[in-house]
Amino acid sequence: MEDIPAPVPVAELIAQRPADFCDAPDGYLTADEMERAWPVVWRLDAFLPANEVRTASGFGNTYQDKYHAGDVQRIADAIADGTAVLAPHWRKDTKEGHKALRQVRERQRLEEEKDLLKAQLAGFASFVLVVFMWVMILSGKAD
Questions:
Q1: What residue ranges are annotated as transmembrane (predicted)?
Q2: Of the residues 11, 36, 74, 133, which has the maximum number of CB atoms within 10 A of its CB?
Q3: Torsion over CA: 21, 25, 30, 35 (sign)
Q4: How many of the other CB atoms lie within 10 Å of CB of 14?
């Protein structure tokens, strides 16, 4: 597998923000910024609590969580020196991580297909109901 990519330092991420940036409160990062600081991690729902990352909810233009900049940098450093709580199946650069990510994507794909089928069935049932009502109305007028 590939080596762990170098994380982008939090100070650099914050320095790259546009002057009118308002998507996160001072001292916090957006999800996109956090992922650039931790390019090797894909399983954030497990990784964040395991590494005690503080969050702030519902700030700015979205309702997505924001992540404490100090915690993000602390964990980026811990990833780099190998001390972060980072299971192999949470990583993008391991066989276990690739397998787990494929499984999650497959489940998501199946859920999307199931939702599409439900929508198609609902549409078909609505069509049948409209045709039935139309036939009933026409047969009532024919009498």
A1: 116-137
A2: 36
A3: positive
A4: 16
Taking the C-alpha atoms of residue 134 and residue 137, their distance in angstroms, rounded to an integer, is 5
Q: Can you say whether residue 90 is alpha, beta or left, with left for phi > 0 and alpha for psi between -120 and 50 degrees?
A: alpha
pLDDT tens, position by position, 64-116: 789 999 999 999 999 988 899 999 999 988 899 989 989 999 999 999 999 99
What pLDDT sits at residue 130?
Answer: 94
Do 100 and 89 contact (CB within 8 A), yes or no? yes
Distances (CA, A) of 56 to 27, 31, 42: 10, 11, 20
The order of strands in the sheet holding 28-29 is 28-29, 66-68, 55-56
Mean pLDDT to the nearest integer, 118-123: 95
The two structure tokens encoding residue 76: 């980026």
Tokens, residue 11: 């100070």
Contact status, residue 27 vs residue 68, Cβ threshold 8 Å: yes
Provide the 10 A C-beta neighbour count for residue 97. 21
**CA quadruple 47, 49, 51, 56: dihedral positive or negative?**
positive
